[in-house]
């Protein structure tokens, strides 16, 4: 069994079992602080239903749906439940797609209507472009109009629509953004959808509910209200851990819903708990108590550093890490794989892991999201084939052949026979050696060189769009995808290695936004607005070291500001540590910042820049 399922039941778990056994209760919320065991309760409740009513679900061809925020969280819950066929665990987009996929006619009609509206808007912009509009902008607009027209014309030929990252009408791919718009609209407007959802998934649990899209929450609530007696909807979340602006935050229960409370914290050692309670005080004042029995409670360690802005940030961060390693009284900070450094932006991680130019190439383009998720198509050949080939060539040549079998067109069964296989393998081996050399040499433009070698030596089959940029530099363009491809080709291939480690979660860095739900033994949170350049968050404003902008100062008490968002971000980060927490702040006025940190972090130990003078890194 999994540690989550085995963890002791709390009164909340028992209450949840009663709720799930009562068909008259259409919904519930379990809203509680960090580390209170919400996900644990969710998994225990799923396990309970599977063990007590699993057969009935199977016989009725029903499942319990559980919606998670990330793919990692999805996988963990699946593992906890030993991949039970009764639980349908998925991320939100993929769940929405499962609901709509059987309704191919509805998908086609929705795409057609939506596509025509988008086309009309583009045509309108083109027709009304002023005399000062740059010719390049007009060109790009024209290309977009042509692509839209072409996609709409090909819509009728699509046999079956599929789900993908970005919508491509002609290829029948419905992207994330469209799924998110289409499915809630269909659920709200077509009563049959609600009925079918309740019939197929009589229980739906949503984890990290605070960051769930408002439209999704609205359509699920609609099902709960209209299908009363046949459906139960449960939200597990914490409004003070809301990170994304698209998230709903607080979920107000409908009439007849139950609120399940969880006052304990099972994750944070006592000193960390005091700090997270203090950070939370100004949000909603909720104070947690440790849920662990006295003999399992630990004090933990909280340390903070305030560094001057003008100093060498990386050098000081390194010194702080060394200081922690040398001075911990509880033997924390000794191992890289137990330490996580949380930075505010991918840009910061890119700077520290050496993929700044790659980051810049994708930043601000429509592939930015795919870049941060590791799914951007131009990088796929590197991540899935070329870098693993280089790694195999360098450390385990036995892996080369199985890899080449998957990627090289020369090794497809129809292209290989007994007489050609030897020379083909020799050609491929020489190609791999050339690729290894190109990657080892690196340098500006080596991304293009590595791709050319891979293509010419038939190590991999490349997408037409990449072949086109290899053949000729795209003309100067305002199209962000074309600009990105040009910039990408100029990058050093070494950048891709740092990037691959980062997105593979194989580096000591993560972004502060990306660690929801996770926990690590030792956590360093870096507070550095200057390097972050993130307009949504500001640690200086949060700590009172900088004034709010005029617009923010004028907001009403119930409207959120960067101070609220930053408080929540810091709360999420600080509450990830299970043993030791360190906070590193870079500030213009070190004295004022130190005072603010003292007030915010009760019982924490301050280490000054002078204390670090003797530390050698
Ligand atoms: N009933 C329990 N008894 C002992 N430990 C528990 C219990 N419930 C949860 N835990 C432990 O507490 C930690 C936090 O649990 P979990 O991740 O479920 O909390 P959460 O409320 O979902 O967290 P967060 O909102 O901060 O991401 C985990 O290490 C988990 O194993």
UniProtKB/TrEMBL annotation:
Checking InterPro entries in the record gives: DNA_helicase_UvrD/REP, P-loop_NTPase, UvrD-like_ATP-bd
Say if the entry is tagged with keyword Nucleotide-binding. yes
Task: State the UniProt keywords alphabetically.
Answer: ATP-binding, Helicase, Hydrolase, Nucleotide-binding
Q: Key word Hydrolase present in the record?
A: yes
What does the entry give for GO biological process? Answer: recombinational repair
User: What GO molecular function annotation could you give as one example from this UniProt entry?
Assistant: ATP binding
Residues given in the record as ATP binding sites: 32-39
User: A GO CC term?
Assistant: cytosol
Q: Which residues form the UvrD-like helicase ATP-binding domain?
A: 11-282
Q: Where is the signal peptide?
A: none
Please name the PANTHER family in this protein's record. DNA 3'-5' HELICASE, UVRD / RECB / PCRA DNA HELICASE FAMILY MEMBER
Q: What is this protein called?
A: DNA helicase-2/ATP-dependent DNA helicase PcrA
